[in-house]
Every structure is written in C-alpha cells, then in structure tokens.
Amino acid sequence: MTQSTTSNTHPMPILDHHSPIGWIGTGVMGKSLVLHLLKAGYCVHVYNRTKQKAEPLLQAGAQWCSSIADIAQSNIIFTMLGFPQDVEEVYLAPHGLLANAKPNTILCDFTTSEPSLACKIAQEAAAKAIYTLDAPVSGGDKGAREGTLAIMVGGPNFVLEHIQPILVLFGRKILHVGPAGAGQHTKMANQIMIAGTVLGMLEGMLYAEHAGLDMPKVLDLIGSGAAASWSLANYAPRILQGDFQPGFFIKHFVKDMKIAQQESQKMHLDLQGLMAALAAYEEALSEVGNLGVHGLYSFWKKQDKF
Amino acid sequence: MTQSTTSNTHPMPILDHHSPIGWIGTGVMGKSLVLHLLKAGYCVHVYNRTKQKAEPLLQAGAQWCSSIADIAQSNIIFTMLGFPQDVEEVYLAPHGLLANAKPNTILCDFTTSEPSLACKIAQEAAAKAIYTLDAPVSGGDKGAREGTLAIMVGGPNFVLEHIQPILVLFGRKILHVGPAGAGQHTKMANQIMIAGTVLGMLEGMLYAEHAGLDMPKVLDLIGSGAAASWSLANYAPRILQGDFQPGFFIKHFVKDMKIAQQESQKMHLDLQGLMAALAAYEEALSEVGNLGVHGLYSFWKKQDKF
To answer: What is the C-alpha to C-alpha distance for residues A265 and A115, in angstroms, rounded to an integer?
Structure first.
C-alpha cells in the first residue's frame, strides 16, 4: 500500500494482524466477507443480533462480542446490515458505534441504505473525530463468496486508501465516488437502472410467451441485439427452467427501490420507470418476497396474467 | 442452399440474377439493403412514394417502377416502410401488392408493424396463393449498412428457406420464429424490453447527475455489474458527450411502443413499464422526435428536471 500524502495530517488507526477488526452483521453477505478476513490472517471480532448466525464464523476462528459497545473498541469496524433502521440503530443508538468508539476509529458500512442517513452518520462521527465510509456493494452472494464485489465508496478518500488492503479481499472493483453519501447514491443509480431493465425484460418475456412464441429461440435472438442486458442474460434462462431462487431477494430490492424513490423525490425527480417497477414488486412482495428478483414472473403467472 | 423437402408441393418462384427483385421503400434502411442486392448482382426494381429518395439507387443500377402494380410483377418483393398504415396501403389497397401480384409471388415485409396486420395480409395473400413473410429487423442503420441485421421471420418456413440466399446479404442472424405475425410479435417483445431498459438507464443517469456524482466513473462502475445493458454501453457515452443523434429515432420508437401497447391490451396484459416508457417518450415526441432514443435525456434536462 502506498502511504497517502494527506495521511500525515490525519492520525489513522493501525491495521495489522494483531489488532482486531470488528464486524457487525453476519448474514449471507457478511459471513462470506468475514471468512475472507480470517483466511487472510486477520483477527476478527463479530457481533450479530442473532448469535446463531455467527456460529460458523466462530468455528472458523472469529471471536464473539456480546455487544456493539465491545465491538466498538476495534480500530476498524465493518457493518453489513439489512435495512436503514438497522444502520441507524447500530450507529446512532446510545448503545451504538458512535457513542462507544474511540477517536480515529474507522467505520465502514457495506449496507445498501439511505444516502441521507450516511451523511448524518458521517457528520456526527466527524464531531467525534471518527472516520466513516458508506460503501454499498454490488455482485450479490456470489460476488461476496468469490471476493469479486464492486464496492462504491463515499467518504474521505484517504480513509478509503488506508483500508484498501482489506477491501481488496472483498472486491475486484473498488471506486471512490465522492463524499459521504456518494456511495449510497451510486448504488441507488445502479438500482434505478436495474429496476427499469428487469421490469422491461420480464414484460417482454410475458408478451412473448403470451404471443405463443418459441421462447428459447426468441430470447436467444433478442439477447444478441439492442435489448441485451445482464438481467436478460442471467434471469431469462432461470425463468425458462422455473428456477426463481435468489440471487438477490425481492424483499431487498423493494427496500432499495423505496430508498431510491424517497431520494429522487427529495431531488424533485419524477422517475416513472422506477415507480412502475416499485409498484409491480410491492404488489408481489408478500407472496414472493423471498424469491429472486426474477420471481416477479412467477407471481404474474399465478395472477391470471396468462 | 439446400432444397426444402416440402418445397416440391409448393410451386416457388425463380430467384436468379435475371428475374427482377421488387423493392418498395427506399429510406435509410431500405437504401442500404438494396445496395447489397445490387452489389450481389441482382436486378432490382424500386418504388418509393418520394422518387427523389430512390435516386442514389437508380444511379447505382436499380430500375425505377412508377407504380406498385408494376413492382408487383416481380417474383419476389421486399417492403421496408414507415408505419402500419403504409404497410396496409401498399399491401391491401386496390392499387397495392395483393391486388396485382401473380400467384406464387413472395412478399416479404421488413417494416416493424402490427402483428395482427401481418396476419390479415397473410390470410388475404393465401387466398390468392401468394406467399408472405413478416420479417422485422433489429440492428438499425449500421446493421443495414454492414449487412449484420437480426431478422425475425414469421410465416411459412419453406418460404424463408427459399429466400434465405437473399436474406443472408442483409443479416447475420436470421431466425424463423413462428407463423404469420410471429416476426412482429418477436420485435414487439424486443421493443418492450428496450423500453424498460432505456427508461431505467436514463432515470439512473438523471439521478446520478442530480446527486452530483462523477458520471464517467460511476457509469463505468455501474456498467460492469448487474445494471449492464446494451443501452447503457451504447447510449451513456453519447449522452455524456452531448451527442443525441440517431441511431434509432424517437418517432419510430414511439410507433413501436404504441403497437406493443395495443397488442398487449388485446392479450389483456397490463405492462406498466411499457406504459411508463411510452408516456415519457410521447411527452417528448414533438420536441425531440427526430433525435435518437437517448435524446429523451436532453428533453428532460430542458424540462427543469435539473
């Protein structure tokens, strides 16, 4: 790692194999990432609301901490949570990270959450000389397992540079996209694009199937032209096989789209494609929330759309 | 070309370099395709509503016909028109193709048009022992110039097989997708997918720009993940450069989406993504109809969306 020229003016915490790294949130994504840390020889302290979910990590060498205040003693703490309200509680509650961490601690949140919340946390952290990064990821469970995530980082660049040797264990594409909140904004732009693309892709398939077309042939033809997308290439074959497992959960996609809608309304943007996708997924949420995003198709099939 | 086993029972017209090929519609797309025919040594008779647009082809060796009835004497006639009403007139009017063509003539329509109209034409043609194919294309002006179009063919497969030696001059991917109308249905499925994808892509960019993100960096990051699409890869760089030229005209995209909406309503499908895209483009049509489909972004920028 190259020493940042600005880092002299910012006292940075030591990151070595003897100083514990704190980790909160050991779900599907978090678990894979902690395993990368352990494999690289780091000492990892973990905390999770449900201890049971952390068991495999404890067996792999991680150490259990029974409270966020304990975890907060680490030089660097990563969080990978579910919803914005989880982020708010873990960071801002009286028993949370900001109230208990030392000055110069680095807090890095991988959760896809609200840009405005990321800014609020960064502001309150700065008042205590604590560093924060909002660093949502893209690439799903597979990217986490294989350490090939894209990581979109908002916050001070010198902080990102300081923890880069750790982040490279998780991701292949790690980019500083701007100040606090910019990581979340980038993820929102990403999700807005996916929303329109997936909705269009599924509607096109619904139309094609209803028109009685030879689906594999038509999808092959369409997928090689101007309608090509990651969603079409990855979801259409699974849909044809009737496989609607996640991948990326509908319940999380709905959460992301709701944040995107709130943020776009604050910007006075009227994003009709996003609204249409959100409405379609919200209608399906209670029935297929635990399926992958292409599971909307199976919901439609049940809803007399055929 | 392999002789189709079924062709013995169907008397097929001779296609050689001495028998004129008829061509109606010499706009941007048609012109490029006729040039391929001339280059391959075919004798081509052309007709166009505006003769002036055919002049470059006449200079290149095509022969002018002053009426559709004249063109209808060819063994095979291709049409590449603008709107469904043009297709209806050229095929079904008293001075049109069906009224004037001989039995066993092949009529192949490249226009993106209504599936139901393609079926109607096929039915009336069959009553006169005339063969028809609906064969809309994908790949735009570039694909037409380079002979790399995707061609989605509905109609009898033995007719497609008979004219395959000509179609390979125009396209790289030529697929029989079903009976009369199936070519148009395939194109509609394609356009429905593009509608959602383009809308999502443009909305994501609008959000990102409004959030003050570093656009080239963010688009590079987003474009390498699950939001990747042909539209993002091809349109985003042009948008960043302020280049909104077609490519594919907004006015034609609106026509296609309107057909798709009508057809999906006939199927009792409620395609909200398509509706959102159509509404967004219809709002912009009068101002930016002659721009490329990514020109919606320039319309938004003028509309105080910033």
So the answer is: 13
